[in-house]
Each structure stands twice: as C-alpha cells, then as structure tokens.
TrEMBL record:
CDD domains, per the entry: MYSc_Myo8
UniProt cross-references to SUPFAM superfamilies, sorted A to Z: P-loop containing nucleoside triphosphate hydrolases
Organism expressing this protein natively: Carpinus fangiana
Descriptive protein name: Myosin motor domain-containing protein
Family: Belongs to the TRAFAC class myosin-kinesin ATPase superfamily. Myosin family. Plant myosin class VIII subfamily.
Parts forming coiled coils: 968-1016
PROSITE patterns from the UniProt entry: IQ, MYOSIN_MOTOR, SH3_LIKE
Gene Ontology cellular-component terms listed: cytoplasm; membrane; myosin complex
Start-end of Basic and acidic residues biased regions: 1051-1068
Region (Disordered): 1041-1070
Family annotation (SMART domains): IQ (SM00015), MYSc (SM00242)
Pfam families, A to Z: IQ, Myosin_head, SH3_VIII-1_N
GO biological process: actin filament organization; actin filament-based movement
Region entry Actin-binding, spans: 728-750
Length: 1171
C-alpha cells in the first residue's frame, strides 16, 4: 500500500521533544516494556494516569500546549491529535497488575477484541461499566471488591453484587465526548458507545475513529453547515471532525500527490448516506467552483433522488440504487466536469410496494405538481387513482411538499440542459408507466386466455407512447413464437399477461432512468478539460436485513461484502502485510475477514451467483429447484445454511440474513419478450425507440445454455446478477486505484426520531463497520510511512554535515539521530521508515521553520540587491533629470526673452495709443471749454435784450412752473411707457430673431431645392433650345438649297421671252408661299418658348419670395411649386411634340417644293427646246 493512502497526523509547531515525554495511545501502561536483550519489545504500553478518587484529571493532556490543530502537508486528516504528558512513571505494583491482567485475557475473539484491564480499575475503586440484562451498559462506581466479586453502585442508588471479571473499565471524565476515539484510554464497547452518545446529545454528530469518520444521523437539521463552516474548514480554523474536513483532505492529497481520491460512504438504510454525499459535493463545489459546472453537479441530486429514491419502512428518502459520482478537476484545482455511474436500480418497486412504503418520488411529484395544460395533455389523475401507487396506501411523506419538489426537479432538468421537449417526453413516459398499471384483462375462453380491455388505461398508454392501440393489445395478451419455419401466435393466461404488462412498465422506467443519467453525463462531460485528477464519491445502498429478504437485498448485501473487503484490505490487510514485507517488528491485530463469504458468492462453478445463473437458464427451473440446488452444493460452507422451503441463510460480516428465493429466477432473468421490444421500436415517440434500441443492443450477448422460453432468443441478455457482478468488479478496480477516505454512517434508532439513541442498534453497526479495530490498529501501529528516498530528499537538507554522497538509508538514520527521535517512536524497514502517530510532525515543523528561515534570508538578500539597484537607478535618474531640466530651463529662458521683447514692443504701442487718446480727450475738453466760454461771452453781450423782456415774463413765471411740472410728470410717464414698450419690442425682437433664424434655415433649404429645380429647368430649356436651333438650321439649309436652284434657273433662262418671265414670277411666288408659312410657324414656336420661359421664371421667383417671407401672399408655396412643376412638365411635353410635328411638316414641304420646282424647270427647258 502506498504512503498516499495513509492517514498522517497533524500538529502545531514545537521546537523539540524532551526525552522523558511519553505519548498516550495504548490503554495498558505508561512504561515501555523492553525485552531481556535490551531491545524494544513487540508492543509498548502507555496508560492515562487515572487518579484514585475518580475526579477530573487535570494533567492528562498536559505537556505540549496547542500540539493539536495544525494541518501539515503530509496530513490527510485534520485533528489526529496526540496527547503528550510529562509525569513520572507509575509504580511497579501498578505495572505488575497491568501485566498480570494482560496475561489473563481470554482467548475468545469477542473478549480479545473489546476487553481491557479491569484489575487496576477494581483495585482503585473507580467507575466501571456493567452490562444490564436488557443488553444496555450502565456506568457505576465500585464500592468494594474481592478476588471474584465486586459491589457496584448505579446512578439510581441501586447497589449490585457482580463478578469482577464482568466489569469493564470506564474512561476519566475529562475524556467524555472527545472528537477522536484514539484519545480514549480504555477502548471498549461501552466507552465508545458512551463517547458517541455524549457528542450526539450535543448535536456533534461527527466523531473520528482514526482515519474513519463516524457520522450519526441526527434526524433533524443541525447548524454545522453553510458558507461560514466551509470557509472555516478551508482555512483550518476549525479542527473538529466533519465531512468538510474529509473532503478538504481529499482535495489537498489530490493536488499534492497527483493521485485520484475516493470518498466511500457506507451504512445501513436510513443512516444518512445520501445527505452526507450531498454535503461532500457542496464542499467540493465551494472549493473547486468558478467555472459554473459545479452548479450543474449539485443540481443532479434532486433529479437522481426523484427518479431513484423512495420511501421505505426505515427511511423516508431511501436510495434504491447505487451511484458513483466522479468529479474531475483542472490543473488549477477547479471543477472541470463530472461523470455519474449507477448500479442496480430496484425496478420491482415500480409495480409492487409494501404496505406503508411508496414507489419512486417522481410519480407522486408528477401527480401533485404538473401544470394544468400538461396534466390535460397527459390525462393525469391523482396518485390514489393508479393501481401501482395505491397498493401501499401511502401517498405522502410528513413534511415533504411533492408539488414544490416537482418544481425543483423541473428547474434542475433545465440546469442540466434537458430541453422542454425532452422533459415533456419524460413526463409522458412516467404517465404511460402509471397508466400501464391500470390496464386490466378479461378472460375470453375456458383455458383462461385473456385479452386487454379497451378502456381508458389502454387508450392513454397507446397515446402516450405513440403506438397503435391494437398492436398494444396484441403485445400484452399474445406472444409470437417461431417453431421451425413457422410463426405461431400464443395467447397468454391472466398471470402471464400481468407479468408481461409489469415487465414492460419496469423496462420503460429502467430505460428512462438510464437515459436521464446519460443525458446528465453529456451535460457534465469533461471533454478536453480532463487532467486525470478526480475525486469519486460513492453513495451505495447499505447492508439490509428485513423480515423478508428478496433478490434486491441479495445483490445489495453482496455489494456491501465487496466494499467491506475493500475497507478491510485498506485498513487491515494491506496495513499489516506491508509491516511484514518491510520487516517491521509488529504484533498482528485480529480482524474479521469476509473472504469466505465472498467466495460463497463468487466461486465457480459452485457459488451462489453461478448457481443462480445456471438455474435461470434452465427451461424448467423454479425458485424451489434453485433453493434445493443451493442446499445440495453449498451445505459444507460455513457461511451458508439451508432453511425450510425456498429459504436459505448467509452469514454476512454484519450478521446472518435469511433470503426467500421467491422471484429470484424471474428477477435475475429480467425477461422482456421480443414482442414488447418491437412494440416500443414501432412507436412514433422518440424515447420508446431509443429504449428499444438500447435493449436490442444489450441482447447481442446471449446467455449460454438452453433458453428460458421459446421465441425469446432475440431478447435474452446477461443476467442481472452477472451484469451487477461485472459492474461491481469495475467499481472495485476504480476504487483500488484511488486513495480512499471512509465515512461510516450510523443510524441511532429505527424510529427516525431525533435525540433517541439505541445502544444495541448503534453497537451492531459499529461492529459491522469494524470501527474499533480501525482505532486499535491506527493507535498501536505506524500510520505514517515514507520511503527512504523521499524521506532523505524531503528532510536531507536539515542535516548539519554534507551527506550528498551517502545512500538514502544512511541519510534517513542521520536525520533521526540528529533530531533525537526516540527509537520506540519509529522503525526502519527495508524500503520505508515507519513512524508512530505524530512523529513526522516534529520533522515537518522543523522543515517548515527552516524553509521559512531560508526564505527570510533569500528575501533579505534580494531586498539588499533591490535596494542597491534602486540607489544606482536613482543616481542615474537624478543625472538624467539634471540634463533634462537644464535643457528645459534654457529653452524656457529663451522663450522668456522673446516674450519680454514682445512685451516691450506691445507696451510701447499701448502707451502711444493711450497718449494719443489722452491728447484727443484734452483736445475735446478744450473745445468744450472754449464753446462754453464763447457762449457765456455771447450771452453776456446780449444781456440787455434779455432784461427788456424779463419784465413781461415774470407775470407768467408761476404758470410756467406749473406747466413745466405737469410736463415733467407726463414725460416721466411716457418714459416709463416707452421703456415697457421697449422691453416688449425687445422680446418680440428676440422671438422674431428666432423665427428669422428658422426662416433662414428653411430659406437655405428652399434655395437648395430651387437651385436644383432651376438647374433641371435650365437643362430642359437648353434641350428645347438645342432642338429649336437644330430645326432652324435644317430650315436654313433647305432655304440655301432653294436659293441655289433659283440662281441656276435664272442663268439658264436668260434667253426666255418677257411673257415667259411673268409666268415664272407667278410660279416663284407660289413656291415661296409655303416657305414663308413655315418661317412664321417657327417664329411663333420660338416666341412661345420665350414667353413661357419668362412666365415660368417669374412664377418660380415669386414663389421663392413668398417662401422666404419677402412677399405676403395667402397661398401655399410648396403646393403651388408642385403645381407649377406639373404645368411645366405638361407644357414641355406638348411643346416637344409640336416641335417634332413642325419639323416633319417642314421637311415634307421642303421636299415637295424642290421636286415641283425641278419638274417645272425641266418642263420649261424641254418645252423651250422643242419650240
């Protein structure tokens, strides 16, 4: 077994261990026994220093304070503490009594396992345990003792006289409720039970048993979970036992050792395995979260619980399947994905439930919480209307809301990326299973042959799975067989038809469960992010023993036997085998090995599984013949006992279980006829087709031997037991490749009631788990081990001398001697060093302190180098800054000089301007003064004239004063009115200014539009003008041609007579008349063109002025502009057509006139010549 799988202790820093310190751990003595030759004996015995008076022992854990609590690198479990005590050795008589008692221990296995010393306890009159007739243990105080009998006082005041050998010593009060059973001085049944009960009563449900965590189901909510606790265990601020601590250890070991880890959770049904697995997953998600996949992993729990858990008589949420959740991590320690593997779903629960139990939760959740529209679509009813659900008369669980749970399941399905369409298909398959149970049959003949009744159940099943109703009736009531080359249809009896119906329902549900797990795994797929590091959490059904145990309990208990062997191999077998292989002086610890029971199951060809498969293949095999065959071949096995009838008993590691073989063969065959598979493959829905393909794929490996039924060859497959055995072997191979961490869940009572602690039930489970053997071997063994190479490589640098060229063994021994590790605290093996609990902590603490000192030296040296470099850098920076600042100062000085010169120039000019302005002011003032003086002189000279008139004006002076005052008031009023009017005008001016800005912006837009229209009009005008000029040019050419013809005729007719001349003039005048008419037409067209262009131009200009506000007019400029454009387009079109017509007419006239002139000319020439 590798060192990675060992449980290493944890300590806080200590500087040294004095030689007289001794460690408590074995319940016998304080002194170390040595053999005659001076070497250490096989064992060492250390007692716990119990005072005589039984009072609290204050010095039990004195010595090194704070020695517990720190987790080191090599520690997989926090809180593995050791008690160190510095006290004198016990007296010789105490040692003699202990040794004498050890020599008198009975050879019985149970006594050897549980009994400790009693003579010391009886002699010192301390408290002891006594077993009452009902099997419970009671704590009493010894009043008196003799050689064979003792008088003991119980807490109720009752005094008993009992045999001294029946007393079991009790631990001191200071050890009550310790968190690790390894700390108990006396390791016996009542002490362990009492310690666990003390913690349970204080809601401390977790207790360590060496490397194993014992978890008691509180059957209530306890305040031990949440983000605060997760953070505390992550930072190691809490060291008490917890699932968080186990999970944290698994994560740290995975990262440190790069080895996959596994957390194996076991226990009876109702012990809390599922909840414990969920708590472990919560801690993994909290520490490894960040990618979002951890939320999906947590959301798989509601789905798997709804489809795989059910209420049983012992547990309201019992897992009816096993699951292994393998969580993968990336290189950075974050969760990168997960994979879920399931084992042995209890399919029979779909069609059959015991009184007081329930089928799978999802059926009741569907009936209670499905939305109204989907309820109508699936035609769902209440749970009590389905036969499969009303068999047990149990439809609800106290404190559980099925409708709310259904909402949580739907939310979880969304999280794991199952589409709404697939969800509806899943609910349809569930409804189809429920309606299958309501299908009834009617007998149709005297041979008890039946056919399915065409009722609501049959119709709904056909509708939900998407098949034809007649095909469904035939598949349920008939069976096709092939005899030779012929196909025969056999009618089924009532029992056969019911079995066929139930088999179809179980197969649909099992395939649906497997499909859901497959979809979840696709959602959680790791893909390229896989790094090979993973932590597997195994939550599998616990050991079961009921009044009637069937095939399911047979497989479940077989799986638990395998897990118990893995537990034994890891903690007992491999541990002790490694001691022996490495030559360690070691006293072997006895434990129960279940290999004989496993051989009973797996031996070939005469094992339970082999005989079951063999009998399942026989055509005439029955449950009774199978039971008789077992009794015939296995009676010699010590773990097997035949019973009456169809029963047999197997002695498991947890006790003897009696199995009833009724239904064993049918359940092992798990037979579904080919007709039912073909029915599913012909369905229109997608899921039944997938289920049929899956079942056909599994049938590719037929079972050897004769077939159970004719016509079933195509549907035969591996038996359930064989397939489960293969899955179990693969599971064990996977677990063997990981470092396991064990959590044993204990159920305190069968009533699922809090604060109720049944000693007998708890003790039975502790015995089954082998908890006390684990503590005993961990406490007396060497849990810490390390190879010589790794030890030398890890701690070699601590040596004072150079040992680089020595072998690893010499280096290891030198390290041990240098640090004064007591020889009894370690042993040197062939390949490894083995240490007692806690010894590696001394070396690890020294190593950490040395590494810390090295880091401090390195940090100081690096700081010195950094400071030297910083000083050089500062000097360089200062020099560079001086150069830069000098250059910058010089540039700034040059700029300052330029600015000074410019300022002088500006000052000169400004002073000149000021002087000129001052001179101008003085000049103006001088002129004013001169004008005033001159006026005064003028008025002085004209003063006589004013005196003459002053006499007449004095009479009216008073009137003028009155008039002037009234005028002044009127002027003030007008001034105020004018100011108010001015303010209004200013406001109006502002408004008008804003409007003007708006008009200007609009005017700019209109100008752009008009400019574009003018450009278009100019282009069109130019095109019309060009057309007109072309017409004029063509007409001018015709005129020139006629003039040339006329000149030729005149030169040729100079010899004509005068009378002929007059006639020629008439002809010429007649020829020029059309020409003048055409010229007038062209001139009219040109004149019309000029007029129209002038009119359109004036109208457009007018509209622009109206638009801009220059001209007031009550019309809409935009609408008038559009109308003007339409008129222009119409005129242009009409004008163009007339121009073309005129051109054509002119062309025709020109041709006719020319021909007529020529004809007349030639006629005159010919007639003159003839004459």
């Amino acid at each position: 077994m590798s060192q990675n799988s060992q449980a290493l202790p944890s300590f806080q820093s200590i500087q040294s261990l004095p030689g007289d310190f001794r460690f408590t751990g074995s319940p016998a003595s304080d002194c170390l026994e040595k053999s005659d030759d001076g070497s250490l004996g096989n064992t060492y015995l250390i007692s716990s220093s119990i005072p005589e008076n039984g009072d609290s022992r204050d010095g039990v854990f004195e010595g090194v304070e704070g020695y517990r609590g720190q987790v080191i690198e090599d520690s997989p479990y926090s809180g593995n503490a050791i008690s160190v005590e510095d006290r004198p050795l016990i007296v010789d008589e105490d040692l003699d009594s202990v040794v004498s008692h050890l020599s008198s221990i009975s050879a019985s296995r149970n006594e050897c396992r549980w009994d400790d010393t009693t003579s010391y306890t009886a002699k010192k009159k301390l408290q002891s345990w006594i077993q009452l007739p009902n099997g419970n243990w009671e704590l009493g105080k010894i009043l008196a003792t003799s050689s064979s009998e003792s008088v003991i006082s119980l807490p109720g005041g009752k005094v008993l006289n009992v045999k001294t050998e029946s007393l079991v010593p009790a631990n001191p009060d200071i050890l009550d409720g310790v968190d690790d059973l390894m700390q108990l001085s006396y390791l016996n049944e009542p002490s362990v039970l009492y310690n666990i009960q003390c913690r349970y009563n204080q809601d401390m449900i977790y207790t360590k048993a060496g490397p194993v965590l014992v978890a008691i189901n509180p059957f209530k909510k306890v305040s031990l979970y949440g983000n605060d606790y997760i953070e505390a265990y992550k930072l190691k601020s809490i060291e008490s036992p917890h699932v968080y601590a186990i999970t944290d250890t698994a994560i740290r070991e995975m990262v440190r050792d790069e080895v996959n880890q596994s957390i194996i959770i076991s226990g009876e049904s109702g012990a809390g395995k599922t909840e414990t697995a969920k708590i472990a997953m919560q801690y993994l998600a909290a520490l490894g979260g960040g990618s979002g996949i951890e939320y999906e992993i947590l959301k798989t729990n509601p789905i798997l619980e709804a489809f795989g858990n059910a209420k049983t008589l012992r547990n309201d949420n019992s897992s009816r399947f096993g699951k292994l959740i393998e969580i993968h991590f990336s290189e950075t320690g974050k969760i990168s994905g997960a994979n879920i593997q399931t084992f042995l779903l209890e399919k029979s629960r779909v069609v059959q439930c015991t009184e007081g139990e329930r089928s799978y939760h999802i059926f009741y959740q569907l009936c209670a919480g499905v939305p109204t529209d989907l309820r109508e679509k699936l035609n769902l009813r209440s749970a009590d209307e389905y036969k499969y659900l009303r068999q047990s008369n149990c439809y609800s669980i106290t404190g559980v809301n099925d409708a709310e749970q259904f909402r949580i399941v739907v939310e979880a399905l969304d999280v794991v990326h199952i589409s709404k369409e697939d969800q509806q298909s899943v609910f349809a398959m569930l409804a189809a299973v429920l309606w299958l149970g309501n299908i009834s049959f009617t007998v149709i003949d005297n041979e008890n042959h039946v056919e399915a009744v065409t009722d609501e159940g049959l119709f709904n099943v056909a509708k939900l799975v998407g098949c034809d109703i007649e095909e469904l009736k035939l598949a349920l009531s008939t069976r096709k067989m092939r005899v030779g080359n012929d196909n025969i249809v056999q009618k089924l009896t009532l029992s056969q038809a019911i079995d066929t119906r139930d088999a179809l329902a179980k197969s649909i549900y099992a395939c649906l469960f497997e499909w859901l797990v497959e979809q979840i795994n696709k959602s959680l797929a790791v893909g390229k992010r896989r790094t090979g590091r993973s932590i597997s959490i195994l939550d599998i059904y616990g050991f079961e023993s009921f009044d009637r145990n069937s095939f399911e309990q047979f497989c479940i208990n077989y799986a638990n036997e395998r897990l118990q062997q893995h537990f034994n191999r890891h903690l007992f077998k491999l541990e002790q085998e490694e001691y022996i292989q490495d030559g360690i002086d070691w006293t072997k610890v006895d434990f129960e090995d279940n290999q004989n029971c496993l051989s009973l199951f797996e031996k070939k060809p005469l094992g339970l599984l082999s005989l079951l498969d063999e009998e399942s293949t026989f055509p005439n095999g029955t449950d009774l013949t199978f039971a008789n065959k077992l009794k015939q071949h296995l009676s010699s096995n010590s773990c097997f006992r035949g019973e009456r009838g169809k029963a047999f008993s197997v002695c498991h590691y947890a006790g003897e279980v009696t199995y009833d073989t009724t239904g064993f063969l049918e359940k092992n065959r798990d037979f579904l006829h080919l007709d039912s598979i073909q029915l599913l493959s012909s369905c229109s829905c997608r899921l039944p087709q997938i289920f049929a393909s899956s079942m056909l794929a599994q049938s590719e490996k037929p079972v050897a031997g004769p077939l159970y039924k004719a016509g079933g060859a195509d549907s035969q497959k591996l038996s359930v037991a064989t397939k489960f055995k293969g899955q179990l072997f693969l599971l064990m191979q996977r677990l063997e490749s990981t470092t396991p961490h064990f959590i044993r869940c204990i159920k305190p009572n069968n009533l699922q009631s809090p604060k109720l602690y049944e000693q007998g039930l708890v003790l039975q489970q502790l015995r089954c788990c082998g908890v006390l053997e684990v503590v005993r071997i961990s406490r007396s063994g060497f849990p810490t081990r390390m190879s010589h190479q790794k030890f030398a490589r890890r701690y070699g640098f601590l040596l004072l001398e150079n040992v680089a060229y020595q072998d690893p063994l010499s280096v290891s021994v030198a390290i041990l001697h240098q640090f004064n590790i007591l020889p009894e605290m370690y042993q040197v093996g062939y390949t490894k060093l083995f240490f007692r609990t806690g010894q590696i902590g001394v070396l690890e603490d020294t190593r950490n302190r040395t590494l810390h000192g090295i880091l401090r030296v390195q940090s100081c040296f690096r700081g010195h180098r950094a400071r030297c470099y910083l000083k050089e850098l500062k000097r360089g920076i200062a020099t560079l800054q001086s150069f830069v600042r000098g250059d910058k100062t010089r540039k700034e000085y040059a700029v300052t000089l330029q600015r000074q010169r410019a300022a002088i120039v500006m000052q000169k000019r400004m002073k000149g301007r000021i002087a000129k302005k001052k001179l101008r002011c003085i000049n103006d003032a001088s002129i004013v003064i001169q004008s005033v003086i001159r006026g005064w002189l003028v008025r002085r000279c004209s003063g006589d004239i004013g005196l003459l008139k002053s006499g007449g004006m004095k009479a009216n002076e008073s009137d003028e004063v009155l008039v002037k005052s009234s005028f002044l008031a009127e002027l003030q009023r007008r001034v105020l009115k004018a100011e108010a009017a001015l303010r209004e005008k200013e406001e109006e001016n502002d408004i008008l200014h804003q409007r003007l800005q708006q008009y200007e912006s609009r005017w700019s837009e209109y100008e752009l539009k008009m400019r574009s229209m003018e450009e278009v009009w100019q282009k069109q005008m130019r095109s019309l003008q060009s057309s007109l000029s072309i017409a004029k040019k063509s007409l001018a050419i015709d005129d020139s041609e006629r003039n040339s013809d006329a000149s030729v005729n005149a030169s040729d007719d100079r010899d004509y007579s005068s009378d002929m001349g007059s006639s020629d003039k008439r002809v010429e005048s007649n020829g020029l008349r059309p020409m003048s008419a055409s010229l007038s037409v062209i001139s009219r067209l040109a004149e019309e063109f000029e007029q129209r262009s002038q009119v359109f131009g004036d109208d457009a200009k007018f509209l622009v002025e109206v638009k801009s506000g220059q001209v007031d007019a009550s019309l809409d400029p935009d609408r008038e502009l559009r109308r003007l454009k339409q008129m222009f387009e119409a005129w242009k079109k009409d004008y163009g057509s007339r121009l073309r017509e005129t051109k054509v007419i002119l062309h025709k006239l020109g041709n006719e006139d020319g021909n007529a002139v020529k004809r007349k000319w030639w006629g005159r020439r010919n007639s003159s010549r003839i004459n």
